[in-house]
Each structure stands twice: as C-alpha cells, then as structure tokens.
Amino acid sequence: MRIVLANSAFHDAGGSETYLLTLGQNLVRLGHEVRVFAHTAGDAAEMARRSGIPVVTDTADLGDPAEAVVAQDGAVAYELAAAWPSVPQVFVCHSSLFDFQQPPLVPEYAAAVVVLNDRVRRRVEALNADLRVVRLRQPIDTQRFSPRSAPADQPRRALILSNYLSADLRAGLVQAWGSAGVEVVQVGGDAGRTATPEEAINEADIVVARGRAALEAMSCGRPTYVYDTWGGDGWITPDSYPGIEADGITGQSGGPKGSTASLLADLGAYDPEWGRLGRELVLAHHDARQHAADLLDVLRELAPTSRTTPTLESELSRQVALRWAAEGELFSIRAALQRAAEREQALAAQVAQLTESNRQTGEDVASLLDKVAELEQRDAHMRERREKYRRRIQRLKKQLAEAEDKADRSRWLRW
C-alpha cells in the first residue's frame, strides 16, 4: 500500500513527530511504500530519511497519489484532501488541548479518527461532526527503547525528560530529591533536546516524564514518575497504569503533587522492580509493530482494493534502506558501547586511585596507632613515676611530721 504520513512540522523530535517516525519505520518493515509530507523539515526528517522514508515539503513533489493518508493536524489534512480528493484519510488526534491538532469537521474529510487515549476520545466525540473513532494505544519502538542495565536498588540519578516542566516545579523536585541524595538532571526544554533520549534514560534510575516520554522510559525498564506542569500522577505501576494510560499519561488523573513532603514520600516508595514491570506493560500494550498492524486494518477497510504489488526494484530499494537504517543503528550501538567502555575505564581508574588512597590511609592509620601505643606506654610510665613520687612525698611528709613532733616533745621536756 502507498501511504503518505503528514504533519505540518517535522523538525524537532516531539511527541507527534516521534509517533509519525515510529509508525513510518514499522510500515516500511511490513513492505509498504511510505512517504512523509511536512511543511517544515529538520532533525526528525533526517531520521526518517536514514530509515529509508522520503520526506517532502511540497505537494508537487509527492508524485503519484497515495492509496491512503495518515494526517495529524488540520492544515495538512485539508491540503492533501484538496490535492487527492478521492484518497481516504485517517486522522490521528494526539491532543485535547490544541485545536490545530483536531480533525477536520467537514464531512468525509476524515474517514476515521484514531485516538490514543480516552481523554482525547472524549474530546473528539464532543466535536460537532459525525466521526468514526478508533481507539488504539501509543506505539513505542521497544527495540530502540530497551534496557541496558537495571535500575539501582537505591536511586542515585533521576532524569527529567520534558520540554514543558516549569522552572519552579523543577526547582522543587531538584531540592526535594537532592536533599535525599538523588542527582536530578534534565533533557528537553531549556536543558536542550537530544536525538537519542534512550541513552539518557538508561543512565538514570528514575525518569520523570509524561505522555510518550513516560512510555519510552518504561520500555527502557526505568521506574517512571509522572510529574509535569499540568499535574502529577506519581509512579506508574501495574495498579496505576490503566487509569493513567486512559487519561493519556497527562499527570491529571491523580491528586495534586509538588509539595516537598509528597515528593519525598513518593521517593521513599521507590521500587526498582517497577522498571521490569513497566517494560512488560509496554511490550503487552504499546509495541509499535502491533500498532502498525492495527492501523493497517483501518486503512484497508477504507481502501479495500488498494494493494500495490512490490516490484523487484522497489523491494531492493526497501531492503537497501532497511540495511542502511540497521547499519546506522549498529553504529550508534557501537558508539554507545565505546562510551560505556570509556566510563568503565574511568571508573576502574577511580577505583584504583581509591584503593591506593585507602592503602596509604591504612599505612598512615597503622603509623598513628603505633604512635598512640607508644604515647600510651609513655603515659603509663609517667603515671607509674608519679605514683612513686607521690608515695615518696607521703613518706617524707610523715617523717617530717614525726620529726616536728619529736622536736616539740624535746622543747616541752626542757621547760
């Protein structure tokens, strides 16, 4: 099937951009011809191209009409509907907050609307339009976002993975958890974004996030704490997951969070086992491969006769693109292993330095103990001599008193 994925912006790796990239990669793996249409392109577009997915910014460059369109905002949805009026569209609605990301209300422009949580579903169903709504779940690339180590029994490092956490809430979290000995760092927002968040996630014991970022952290086997400008749901556990997921992991399904006492109490409840359990939840409910298959079911219902037969050239092109993407992933893994080896060498050098320092300290302590023993011996000798002098003084005093008494008696007899 020829599929065009569309989003107005495809530059920074935000939530809707990473969704589109993840979906596109998995559709290509299934043998489908995928293109991305966006008004602006940047880092996310480069990541798509490295995965063998062409990205164009002008409808004139799209070539032959697609057999289905997946759009994520109103601007591209209307633009592609005008360019290809007979091509069915599926609209993926990500937000209940931004009107720009709501589906077209004009009848038949969006043949189906996919929502990824119940909060957005309620918003879409409240629109003044007769829309077919399909509830799926956020897809996560569980191969890219996979554990590289286990979280520590006692947390040492927490990662804030957010573009939106306000400065005052961040300061409160840093102060509260920092007072308990946890280093708090951030990726996103003013701290700067990264194209490889999985590396920062795997270096932390706790990840503080919302939305897709929280699921990516869970997929990496990290205990995940939902806390952001819009609210805080606390730890994602097997018990809390259903309600938090249904609400879109927005931080708005629980009670108020943010006081120092509540942050410290939540930190005290930390359990590294939540990392493993979170990974299992993502594998069971958010695997991107299953999501791609589910979305294809919707597309095929809308375009049941559209099934482009791959040619030898198109299949070779797809395989080369997949090989290129795999080599890029392999290069990234090798680079990560090299960095890990360098960190291991640095830690080994620190251990050797500390061992030598401890040995020297041990020798210094032994020398000091010898000196203490010598001083104690000298002190005992001095006490012994003082005791001897004391007894001698007592004898002399007694002799003096006897002599004075004898002298007094002699004087009395003479009188």
Short structural description:
This protein has 415 residues and is α/β, with parallel strands linked by helices. The chain has helices at 15-29, 43-50, 74-83, 118-125, 167-178, 197-202, 211-219, 241-246, 260-268, 273-285, 288-302, 312-414; strands at 2-6, 9-10, 33-37, 40-41, 55-56, 68-71, 89-93, 112-115, 133-135, 157-161, 183-187, 206-209, 224-228, 231-235.
Mean pLDDT: 88
Order of helices and strands: EEHEEHEEHEEHEEHEHEHEEHHHHH
CATH topology of one domain: Rossmann fold
Number of helices: 12
Shape: elongated
What is the structural class? alpha/beta
Share in β-strands = 5-15%
State the CATH architecture of one domain: 3-Layer(aba) Sandwich
Main β sheet profile: 7 strands, parallel
Number of DSSP-assigned strands: 14
Are there runs of 5+ residues with pLDDT below 50, and where? none
CA gyration radius, whole angstroms: 36 Å
Q: Distance N terminus to C terminus? A: 146 Å
Give the CATH H-level superfamily of one domain: Glycogen Phosphorylase B
Give a description of the structure.
The protein is α/β, with parallel strands linked by helices. Among the domains are: 2-139 and 287-308, Glycogen Phosphorylase B (Rossmann fold, 3-Layer(aba) Sandwich), CATH 3.40.50.2000; 157-281, Rossmann fold (3-Layer(aba) Sandwich). The chain is 52% helix and 13% strand. The chain has 12 helices and 14 strands. It has helices at 15-29, 43-50, 74-83, 118-125, 167-178, 197-202, 211-219, 241-246, 260-268, 273-285, 288-302, 312-414; strands spanning 2-6, 9-10, 33-37, 40-41, 55-56, 68-71, 89-93, 112-115, 133-135, 157-161, 183-187, 206-209, 224-228, 231-235. The chain has a 7-stranded parallel beta sheet with strand order 5-3-1-6-7-8-9, with helices on both faces. Strands 11-10-12-13-14 form a 5-stranded mixed beta sheet, with helices on both faces.
